Structures are given as C-alpha cells and as structure tokens.
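Design a sequence for this backbone.
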C-alpha cells in the first residue's frame, strides 16, 4: 500500500510538471491571443493550435477512461484545430481553463485509491489508468517544449 501511494504521488508530480520541465499552468498563464495565433517561419503550427491540441487530446483520454461506450475520434482531424489563431482572448482563456480542469480531473482519478492503476479498462485493448496518466504526462511534456520554443521565438518568454 505504501508503494502504491508513492506511485500515485509520483504520477501527480509528473502530471503537474515542474520537475524536469516547465509546469503547464505557468507556461500558459498570461498568454495573449495575439501571440498564440502568430506563425513562426518553418513551423507548421501556432501556440493556439498546440494548446487546443493538448485540450482535445486530454478530453479524449478522459472520455476514454470514463466512458465504456467510447468512440475514438478521427485522427488527425478531431485532434487538431484548423484555425491558426483563437477567435479572441476569451476562446484562448476557455481552452486553457479546460486544460487545467482536465488535468485536475486526471489527478483526482490517479489519487483515488479506489481506482486500480493496473486494471485494464474493459472497453480498451490493454490500457490502464497508469498508462493513460503516463500518456497525458508524456504528451503534455512534448508540447510544453514546443510552446516554450514558440514563445521564445515570438519574444514572449524569458525563463
């Protein structure tokens, strides 16, 4: 039981970030819609597209975890926004808040000892809560790096 609690605690730290990479909440705070929609030469995406992609992917994973009747979205169309920029600051803020809420939802699932980290979901093909938590952490870490690079290239990040 002590080892399982330690694992859950480590997963929460990994999901929150800040150990080996910038925490997502810190990275996205004070992000402005004008910056999020700017393109950088030679890069195929904007910060907005990365943020929305993280939101859509997180929501999909949470849906998979919690819905036995889960239907997989179409890749890549349902995982990436077509618009390069948010409609306005409110759209960007809504997306960021949804990511924050989704991350807290995932953290609650991981922290709840009644949720077996190792039991495969009956509606999946071997996926477990542990696997999905690691997938979210890995996915976010990858895109956090991209957002930092974009913010730096756009003169919007100094840390």
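Sequence:
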């Amino acid at each position: 039981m002590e080892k399982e609690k330690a694992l859950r605690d480590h997963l929460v730290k990994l999901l929150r970030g800040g150990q080996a990479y910038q925490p997502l909440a810190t990275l996205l705070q004070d992000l402005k819609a004008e910056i999020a929609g700017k393109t950088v030469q030679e890069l195929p995406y904007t910060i907005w597209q990365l943020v929305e992609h993280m939101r859509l992917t997180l929501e999909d994973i949470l849906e998979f975890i919690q819905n036995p009747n889960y239907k997989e979205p179409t890749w890549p169309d349902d995982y990436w926004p077509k618009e390069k920029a948010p409609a306005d600051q409110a759209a960007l803020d809504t997306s960021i808040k949804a990511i924050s809420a989704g991350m807290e939802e995932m953290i609650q699932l991981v922290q709840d000892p009644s949720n077996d980290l190792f039991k495969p979901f009956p509606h999946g093909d071997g996926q477990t809560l542990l696997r999905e938590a690691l997938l979210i952490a890995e996915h976010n870490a990858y895109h956090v790096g991209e957002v930092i690079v974009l913010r730096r290239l756009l003169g919007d990040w100094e840390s």
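The CA atoms of residues 62 and 106 lie 7 Å apart.
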